[in-house]
């Protein structure tokens, strides 16, 4: 197995493949309504990295603007939701969030927090001891 295999992933059908060239900035569970609707799930686990550290080794994502705050990328063949590209904030480098479950070995990355907990489903209790944020986070929050 490739020594970097734990930093690789892709869609369900194999038409899109990617590789990270650096470790994540943060890994977390998002409970926002946009993620819930885009993935058809009560939450999505994301791996956030600098935009320039993702190399698409096969195929490309198709993107749509899901809100004024983000674009979402998915496989144009099978529809697997793979990425969320948040709008850059002043003073922050552009980033891309990759769906944790799309990594070849998603056990590689342990989530560090929950975000947008104000939108969390009440029937899915958050019973771990990870930090919780009612809404989104800043780079400073992620660094803590």
UniProtKB/TrEMBL annotation:
Residues 7-124 form the CENP-V/GFA domain. The keyword Coiled coil does not apply. The keyword Cytoplasm does not apply. Signal peptide: none annotated. Keywords: Lyase, Metal-binding, Zinc. Pfam families: GFA (PF04828). Gene3D superfamilies: glutathione-dependent formaldehyde- activating enzyme (gfa) (3.90.1590.10). It comes from the Bacteria. GO terms for molecular function: carbon-sulfur lyase activity; metal ion binding. PANTHER family: CENP-V_GFA DOMAIN-CONTAINING PROTEIN-RELATED, GFA DOMAIN-CONTAINING PROTEIN. Belongs to the Gfa family. This is GFA family protein. It comes from Vineibacter terrae.
